[in-house]
Design goal:
Rossmann fold, 5 helices, about 30% helix, six-stranded mixed sheet
């Protein structure tokens, strides 16, 4: 998605450890028009898959998931990172190791909202090594829910996540794929789709 690439190039900031900060438009301050356009891009790609739910992890994936779900006219369900008293014990649980924060945490989804009749589209803002998506896949497996595909706003193509998910048989649609980043701020995008 050319527009997303342009915004990343203009507003993204590269930090040591292959960290890309895009908090001015994606995961802190939110560009609502961009969210809407990304939602439509995912809808156009996945619209014939019979999707009944859009699933993400709090918090950064929620905004884009809502934009996607609006086009599909289905609910957004997000895995909670902290167990609240009002969700109860009847939950699916998956342990995830965070690349960005260097910690492990459990995510939970209420069994009430996800089941074997659901066809799910997984959505997130970033894909690096793929642990968050693998955690959501595990939750869908526990629920016997089908996965229609995975939508990612920004993929770090130089890390293993996308290749791992594709080897597992999932259709991954990334709107911007970064092939390399340098600490002087240089960002190189994949010019054509190639997943070798």
């Amino acid at each position: 998605m050319k527009l997303l690439e342009e915004i990343i190039a203009n507003e993204g900031r590269v930090y040591p450890g292959n960290i890309l900060k895009v908090d001015s438009f994606l995961n802190h301050q939110i560009d609502v028009d961009l969210m809407d356009r990304m939602g439509n891009e995912f809808y156009q790609y996945f619209k014939d898959r019979g999707i009944t739910k859009v699933l993400t992890i709090e918090a950064s994936g929620i905004a884009v998931a809502c934009s996607v779900a609006r086009y599909f006219e289905v609910p957004v369900l997000f895995a909670k990172k902290s167990k609240s008293l009002n969700i109860g014990d009847d939950v699916y649980v998956s342990r995830i190791s965070s690349y960005t924060y260097g910690t492990d945490y459990d995510v939970t989804v209420s069994r009430r909202y996800l089941g074997s009749s659901d066809t799910v589209l997984l959505i997130d803002d970033f894909l690096a090594i793929g642990n968050a998506m693998k955690g959501l896949i595990e939750i869908c497996s526990q629920a016997n829910a089908s996965i229609a595909g995975i939508g990612i706003c920004i993929e770090k193509g130089f890390q293993s996540g996308s290749a791992d998910l594709r080897k597992m048989g999932y259709d991954v649609k990334s709107l911007a794929i970064i092939d390399s980043m340098s600490e002087d701020g240089g960002i190189t995008f994949r010019s054509e789709v190639s997943y070798d």
